[in-house]
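May I ask you to comment on the folded chain given beneath this request?
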Amino acid sequence: MGSHWPTDSEVPARLSSIPPTALPSTRGSAKQLCVFSVDVEDWFHILDLPATPPLAKWSALPSRVEKNLLKLLDILDEANTKVTCFFLGWVAQRFPHLVKEAAKRGHEVASHGYAHTLTSHMTPDGFFRDAKKSKGILEDVAGQQVYGYRAAGFSVTESTHWFFDKLIEAGYLYDSSVFPARRGHGGLRNGHRGPHMIVGPCGEIIEFPMTVEPVFGAPMCFFGGGYLRLFPYAMMKHMAKRVLASGLPVIFYVHPREIDPEHPRLPMNLKRRFKSYVNLRATERKIRRILTDFEITSFRTLLANGWQCHASDAAASSLPSPIEKLAEEHEQI
């Protein structure tokens, strides 16, 4: 599998039908862009805890996702920035106006699955049904095609070898679930660090792994969730510039609860409590600095404005390109 950042002449002409609204000054230099993404879930969706409530009890809990996502969308508006919002299908069903609001403000609506279940806890068929259900709900609510997927907890491992085939079968064009480093809920430590194409028996899908940067030979993440909250901003910015200098995009990710220091807490041990709640009061300030210091866009716009991936597998040449499908389906919306 291989990938490269193309010149404008290598980008299919029909992709110009997707307006480059997020790329006013960087057309032809996509490798300098960063992607900002929001995993739209609530405070009680923290994974793999004895106290994590089951799906049947979610509706009875006090929700904070509405208030927090709307505040985050306002912050993005202030920076004139469009991003990718990975919505849980359950959130979309309960708060459809949030999906519509994100789409109305120009953000990409993508899927975070329906029930926020670790991939490693699902069967292949169960995962397919969950991913397909979420995609259908989001497309019905948003009135636009959903191209991307992100697994709960970045829970893709060597044991979930069926993961990409099922996403292709469900109709996704790209994924951003691989964490190419050690992680509690998964991680593919021998995985690609940069975006690449994955070829399956019935098609292909683009993978955008979470951004990591080697420190003393070990890959480390600085760019989202607890990592973003823990590390000083100056260190994160330095590491992001190192990634960009290598020709790769930086992928940032946050959760709406992380800009809400007063949200309720789930019972957990001290280690998990530190990872889940450290430096919540600093998150909003860091987000605002990221939006100021970096060129930010969504996955959809990055793909449509100058990024392609080519698989080394010769079989891929006879398969429909995800990039071409993205352009064609966008034209139908």
The chain is about 35% helix and 15% strand. Residues 124-142 form the longest helix (19 residues).
